[in-house]
Amino acid sequence: MKLEGLHHITMITGDAQKNVAFYADLLGLRLVKKTVNFDQPEAYHLYFGDETGAPGSILTWFEFAGAPRGQAGLGAIHTLQLGVPSDAAIGFWEQRLRDAGYPSQRSDDGTLRFEDYDGLGLELVVADDGNPPLTAVHPDVPADYAITGLEGARAYAMFANVEEKLLTDVLGFTYLGDGEYRLDGEKRHFHWAYDQAQAVGEQGAGSVHHIAWASQDDDHLKWQARVREAGGFVTDVRDRDYFDAIYFREPRGILFEIATLSPGFAADEDPETLGEALRLPKQHEHLRAQLERSLQPVDNPRAARREAASEATA
What are the Basic and acidic residues biased-composition ranges (predicted)? Predict the structure, then answer.
């Protein structure tokens, strides 16, 4: 039994349309699901990823409209690492971000660091150590430069350089030293690291809510039992329509989720039009009329491009 790498990472934003503009238009990811928060259905939950919405490519956001900016600190993820194919791709993104008004900085190892509109820390890294690419199609992003999925994440913690046994002994991570870990699945891997905490954080726009690891469906209840047997407080299984989920906090304070690989984001939507219509959790479908009145419309740029092309040829 082993985890299959990353499933998704979920953040908070104060503006859903800016979220779509940055991640779907500027970064070229595909908006694969437009739905609402299971626990607070008045809030959007947006999912971005590759063409199919494959685990390992997925970034998601809860929108709490107008939320003040948060601050990463103790027990919080502070940086997400996105893969690109080459050093040439790094150069492409440096220019594209600059043209859009987002300054960036290259480190000595070639990593490109920048922030999104909410202040979330992002890094582009050359993905050259074995992850199969998970890319989306965007007319302004050449395929050779497209983002290839998530490669890693870094969090703040106390005792950052002390090996975390829950990761290694229970969840199957490999400890590499100096607060660095690697999770290897059958097809994908993920880099995870702790840095020494600088301050206590504050949740808000631009902060990370949780990180989810991917599980084979048949192993999900076994993972729940393993975490419980290790002394962790783990939730019951939550049906999230596109996957089942369990949640627990690891000892450094970060909220972990283990999510199943199926049924996937095409379970209730044609693969050709993922993310274009508002999809509601089964438990909230009776609220559709109310939510369609109260939620601010969010435009999907892919749908808008297709409509414009159709009008141009009409």
Answer: 302-314
Helices (H), the chain: 16-20, 87-99, 165, 220-229, 288-294, 301-313
Q: Identify the CATH number of the domain defined by range 6-313.
A: 3.10.180.10
Amino acid at 285: E
Task: Report the SS3 class of residue 93.
Answer: helix
Read off the pLDDT of residues 79-130 as tens digits, 9 standing for 90 and up: 999 999 999 999 999 999 999 999 999 998 899 999 999 999 999 999 999 9
The kind and range of the H/E element at 77 are strand 76-84
Contacts of 117 (CB under 8 A, 6+ apart): 15, 18, 22
Residue 297 CB-density burial (10 A; 0-12 exposed, 13-18 middle, 19+ buried): exposed
The pair phi, psi for residue 157, each rounded to 5°, is: -160, 155
Residues in Cβ contact with 160 at an 8 Å cutoff, skipping those fewer than 6 apart: 179, 194, 195, 196, 197
- The answer to whether residues 67 and 204 touch, using CB atoms and an 8 Å cutoff, is yes
Of the candidates 1, 9, 13, 5, the one whose C-alpha atom is nearest the C-alpha of residue 207 is 13
Longest Cα–Cα distance of the chain, Å, equals 64
CA distance 212 to 107: 28
pLDDT of residue 314: 62
C-alpha neighbours within 13 Å on the C-beta side of residue 99: 9
At residue 18's C-alpha, the angle toward residues 16 and 22, to 5°, is 120
239's CB contacts (< 8 A; 6+ apart) are none
Interval 286-311: pLDDT, tens: 999 999 999 999 988 888 788 777 77
* Pairing, β 6-13 against β 58-63: parallel
Burial grade of 138 (CB within 10 A; 0-12, 13-18, 19 or more): buried
Round to whole Å and give the CA distance between 130 and 128. 6
